[in-house]
Write a structure and sequence with these properties.
Blueprint lengths: L3 H21 L20 H17 L8 H15 L8 H7 L6 H7 L3 H24 L11 E3 L11 H21 L4 H19 L4 H16 L4 E3 L1 H12 L1 E4 L2 E6 L2 E7 L4 H5 L7 E7 L5 E2 L5 H8 L6 E7 L10 E6 L1 E4 L6 E9 L2 E9 L7 H5 L8 H14 L5 E5 L8 H8 L6 E8 L4 E6 L10 E5 L6 H11 L4 E4 L7 E7 L6 H17 L12 E10 L15 E2 L35 H17 L1 H17 L3 E3 L2 H25 L19 H18 L1
Parallel strand pairs: 12-13, 13-16, 16-17, 17-20
Antiparallel strand pairs: 1-21, 2-19, 3-10, 4-5, 5-6, 6-7, 6-8, 8-9, 11-12, 14-15, 14-19, 18-19
Helix pairs in contact: 1-17, 3-6, 3-9, 6-7, 6-8, 7-8, 14-15, 15-16, 18-21
Length: about 725
């Protein structure tokens, strides 16, 4: 959708509000209640500003038209506490009782930009976290009884909060015992296991020491926005950058994926085609210990947070970064190698649409099926706005893949795999649908004022007019549901899989910095730097306020039905490997309801109702004879049974016997499937070769589309 007019209007309306908020930042903040024994984390002025402006945006422009009140405040508190301590390992019942003082005031606090209460709660959490990590380090060398009949309750969500330290100490003793037994079952020696756990908890202690006020603020804002609806989200500056890079499937940098290992940044992967790949000077496993911008001074980054290190290494295209690198295999005390790289735009091809060609033998004939896997509906909006002709997008990538499948591979049918595709760009969903239909409505959008806009494919012609199918599962959401629903409504193809997620809402991404004119940003920066001087800190750069993805509309299929809550129901249905009662829009308490509007004026390509009935019958007939299908159903039943379990034995012999039984059952299942395919049985410990891996649902879906080809010929 085009939200340019909305943003212009919003900028005018909020300019006065932002001005008042900036001026209010200079007022004396409410004193924050401090927690003894830790370095308390405190909010800053720009977070106070962002909080009040997010409240303004939500109360005036969110689709729900909701006003913050005591009921919302109560929801925010519960979500915030659960986000911090979901398994009740840290807070005591006395802490939870203490937090009750904030139950009905968080709505007013957020509206006023007062963050003292949630930061106090977090500091209590921080103290408790450090206390029980310290407790674990003190007790990790204890001699535990591994022959008793006690149990460890690992799922504590529905249990009461521990009333005393003694009670929570017992929980942590059992957790330590369980972790040690797990290591012992794996066959390592006791001394080595103690060393492993000691390092694990020392690392936890080190990582929590790096938590900053941006982390706290993000957790709070998640609890706040999710109390309104599941898809209105605030992103702090770091997370906003990550979100936009994921949407664009590109970023500016050196082309290396990084991880943190023992306080040192390590290269986990070199991305093909990037500067790091081209230089041939960097390899997976190399460690980066210092970074310099151009000819500037090196900064030592050992012990830094990974996001801060990444921010130093990434940078604008065409700029130079120098790295001090310890090659893989060398000791950290070795003399580092200095490597200079010019940053480039990195295209994440491994996260883009891909194709493959599979052959299905049926009734004595071979059919070639082109499989297009689309992991998300992405688009590089920044490049498109800059006028780049070859900007990255789902539709552009898929069009090229279709051309290859049609003209070079000569496929008989195409199947699109949207499993685990959580959506993305609404525009891309519309454009992608246009590759398979010849002009017409694709999706209807109703805004917060009840106005309905019909978004159409206006490009004549199609890229593929042959047999077509779409694979979906419970994780297929949003734009995936628009596409699958349109294909189904037009009779353009069949949808195969499980009921989809049910996300039928539209979000607009709003850069909060763009709602302020430059003079207001300068004034805010001045206020922040005055505070920094008082605190004895170095002056800070111009503030980045982050981004909000605001739910502003609902979308509907061309037949008038919302995908909200209900999702898209496939024509050929498989049992879901994901629990439908735990994953999906209908499991979210704050989700918008399902409803309908009048259908749009569209002309179906074909009526496939009779064809679909026959496809389902043929599919069921195959499943009655299928070993894979029977084992899939059994696996799902076993998962549902295990999902209800909340505790596990702490008797090492019993736990090992249970593990051995599960391993034997898994091996037996694998060999049953291998035997049905004519493959040799595996021995215990032997791994499946990559070329022998098999996607049963994909294979059966291709058989369904072959059925469709044969029925059309008949």
């Amino acid at each position: 959708m085009e939200f340019k007019i909305f943003k212009q209007m919003l900028r005018r309306i909020l300019l006065v509000t932002f001005t008042a908020a900036v001026l209010a930042c200079s007022a004396a903040p409410k004193p924050q209640q401090l927690v003894d024994g830790i370095a308390n984390i405190k909010p800053d002025e720009q977070q106070s500003l962002v909080a009040r402006e997010v409240v303004t945006l939500i109360e005036n422009y969110n689709y729900k038209k909701i006003k913050l009140n005591d009921s919302i405040s109560s929801l925010i508190l519960d979500r915030y506490v659960k986000a911090l301590d979901p398994s009740k390992y840290y807070f005591l019942a006395s802490d939870i009782k203490d937090f009750e003082q904030f139950r009905n005031s968080l709505d007013d606090d957020l509206r006023n930009g007062d963050l003292s209460a949630p930061f106090y709660i977090f500091n209590v959490y921080l103290k408790r976290y450090n206390e029980w990590v310290a407790f674990s380090l003190q007790n990790v060398k204890n001699k535990f009884d591994i022959n008793g009949n006690d149990k460890y309750v690992y799922d504590r969500e529905k249990m009461p909060w521990a009333a005393t330290r003694t009670a929570l100490n017992e929980v942590w003793q059992k957790r330590l015992k369980y972790e040690l037994i797990n290591l012992q079952i794996a066959g390592t020696e006791q001394a080595k296991n103690v060393e492993t756990l000691t390092k694990r908890y020392q690392n936890l202690k080190s990582q929590v020491a790096k938590v900053n006020n941006q982390d706290v603020f993000q957790t709070l804002m998640d609890a706040f926005t999710e109390s309104i609806d599941p898809h209105t989200n605030y992103f702090n500056p770091t997370n906003a950058t990550a979100f936009n890079e994921d949407m664009a499937r590109s970023f500016d940098g050196i082309g290396a994926r990084l991880m943190l290992e023992n306080e040192v940044v390590k290269i986990s992967e070199i991305i093909p085609g990037g500067p790091a790949f081209k230089s041939k000077q960097l390899n997976s496993g190399d460690r980066i210990v210092a970074v310099a911008q151009g000819n500037g001074e090196f900064e030592d980054i050992i012990g830094w947070r990974i996001d801060n290190s990444v921010a130093k290494i990434k940078g604008p295209k065409g700029t130079t970064v120098r790295l001090k690198v310890i090659p893989a295999g060398q000791d950290l005390s070795s003399k580092p190698v200095i490597i200079s790289l010019v940053r480039e735009k990195i295209i994440l091809e491994d996260q883009s649409a891909k194709k493959s060609v599979k052959t299905i033998q049926q009734n004595g004939k071979a059919y070639k099926i082109g499989l297009i896997t689309v992991p998300a509906f992405y688009a590089d909006f920044k490049a498109a706005s800059a006028g780049e002709k070859n900007y990255k997008s789902t539709t552009r990538d898929v069009r090229l893949l279709i051309d290859t499948l049609k003209n070079r591979d000569k496929v008989d049918a195409i199947m699109m795999d949207l499993r685990a595709n959580g959506g993305g760009s609404l525009v891309e969903a519309i454009d992608l649908t246009g590759l398979f239909i010849d002009r017409g409505p694709v999706v209807q959008v109703k805004d917060l004022k009840g106005r309905i806009d019909v978004s159409e494919d206006t490009n004549p012609g199609v890229a593929w007019d042959g047999p077509f199918a779409v694979m979906v599962d419970r994780l297929s959401a949003s734009a995936s549901e628009i596409f699958a629903g349109a294909i189904q409504d037009y009779g353009r193809g069949v949808v195969i899989g499980t009921q989809t997620y049910g996300k039928g809402t539209v979000q607009s991404s709003i850069d909060l910095n763009k709602l302020l004119n430059p003079s207001m940003l300068q004034r805010l920066a001045s206020l922040i730097n005055k505070t920094a001087v008082v605190k004895g800190e170095a002056p800070k750069e111009a503030p980045q306020l982050g981004q909000i993805n605001l739910t502003m509309a609902k979308f509907y299929r061309v037949n008038g039905s919302s995908t909200q809550h209900k999702g898209v129901m496939p024509d050929v249905v498989f049992p879901s490997i994901y629990p439908l009662d735990k994953i999906g829009e209908d499991t979210e308490p704050s989700a918008l309801p399902w409803d309908v509007i009048p259908q749009s004026n569209f002309t179906p390509v074909a009526d496939l109702s009779t064809v679909k009935t026959e496809l389902v019958n043929r599919h069921k007939a195959r499943m009655e004879k299928s070993t894979d299908y029977k084992l899939l159903v059994q696996d799902i039943a076993d998962m549902q049974k295990r999902d209800k379990e909340t505790a596990i034995t702490l008797n090492q012999a019993k736990l090992k016997a249970e593990r051995d039984s599960l391993e034997a059952k898994s091996l037996e299942r694998t060999n049953l499937i291998r035997t049905s395919r004519g493959l040799p049985a595996l021995k215990k410990g032997e791994k499946v070769k990559k070329e022998e891996t098999y996607d049963f649902i994909e294979d059966e879906s291709m058989k369904v589309i072959v059925d469709m080809i044969e029925m059309k010929k008949a």
